[in-house]
Specification:
alpha/beta
Length: 344
């Protein structure tokens, strides 16, 4: 990361909560041993860091507590080459999640501890969106922010409205997390639908589409089911141009099959299905896929190329512990090409 690159206008602005992840050592239960591995992450922060690794100028907009934990989070995110804009909030805390990794047939488990975080508490008027979005082409946001309460949702809506006014494209990851909507479950579908219809690109699969706009997409051919779901979303929104998702077949925690799916108004594409063996860490791999789709659109790849490249990003991310894929463009291109030999 050079200072010149860091100070240039971002090409992509990501808005969301930065989190502290506390993970049990690989394959262990939470507190099986008195050790937790800390890293800083968050869905939108992961996408920003992944895009920076692929060579794009990215800015992360968030809010952090005004304490040493907030400072550590700021240093970590900036260390990935991301320009960070995060007002500090006094007498607050950083949202946290605990990860219990999976093993054999036991699935990974995430436990959230996010109530009262700096991001959830901050006044939506604290963000100067015309300045934060100046010079950017895309705004990347997600449904997790909408789930965090009225203030976060208001800030999200203001960001989208200002981005549209300034001519930016909107990428929206539905990222439905039932545990974060407790007490507001009846609102989730409507809110996510409204936000999706404001986007140019959404990340949503068959179930999310059924939740938002109704219908059933449980086609015998899952690729055709995704295509039908995408057509339903395109019919609901004149603005929407692309929809993407992954299809995952889980055999065990460390053996799964992954397919990337990308649709536009002219059709849909599926990547080759990747057999993932000896998975290191599944959490955050959807954010790697999202960054791959964004990169593909920014570099004007074809729809087929986009599905292949984004799936390669997700494949790489399964091999890395932590929520951020820690890959360069050359890394992803090598895995997308099928290269498995030693790189010298």
């Amino acid at each position: 990361m050079t200072s010149d690159r860091y100070n240039q206008a971002p090409r992509i602005v990501c808005f969301g909560e930065i989190l502290l992840r506390l993970a049990a050592p690989s394959t262990q239960l939470l507190f099986q041993e008195p050790v937790l591995e800390p890293t800083f992450c968050g869905a939108e922060a992961n996408v920003a860091a992944n895009l920076a690794g692929l060579g794009h100028r990215a800015r992360m907009v968030s809010a952090l507590p005004d304490n040493p934990v907030g400072e550590a989070a700021a240093r970590a995110i900036a260390g990935f080459g991301v320009a960070l804009a995060a007002p500090r909030v006094a007498s607050s805390r950083l949202g946290t999640y605990y990860l219990q990794p999976g093993a054999m047939t036991r699935s990974p488990r995430v436990t959230y501890d996010r109530a009262g975080s700096a991001f959830a508490q901050i006044d939506p008027g604290s963000y100067d969106w015309p300045t934060l979005l100046a010079g950017a082409e895309w705004l990347f946001v997600g449904g997790i922010t909408a789930a965090l309460g009225d203030k976060a949702l208001a800030a999200l809506r203001e960001a989208i409205a200002q981005a549209q006014t300034m001519g930016l494209k909107i990428a929206f990851d539905t990222n439905y997390r039932p545990a974060l909507w407790q007490g507001r479950e009846d609102q989730a579908a409507g809110i996510l639908r409204d936000l999706s219809l404001e986007a140019d690109l959404i990340f949503a699969g068959r179930r999310a589409t059924a939740m938002m706009v109704g219908g059933s997409y449980d086609h015998a051919d899952p690729d055709e089911g995704f295509h039908e779901a995408a057509q339903a979303m395109f019919a609901a929104s004149a603005r929407l141009q692309h929809m993407a998702a992954t299809r995952r077949v889980v055999h065990s925690s460390d053996r799964q099959d992954l397919t990337g799916l990308v649709a536009d108004r002219s059709g849909s594409s599926a990547s080759a299905t990747v057999a993932l063996e000896n998975i290191v860490d599944r959490v955050g791999t959807g954010d790697a896929f999202a960054a791959g789709v964004m990169h593909a659109l920014l570099t004007r790849m074809s729809r087929d190329e986009a599905a292949t490249f984004a799936t390669a990003c997700a494949e790489w991310a399964h091999s890395v512990r932590g929520d951020i894929m820690l890959a360069t463009l050359a890394d992803v291109e090598a895995i997308a090409s099928g290269s498995r030999d030693v790189r010298r």
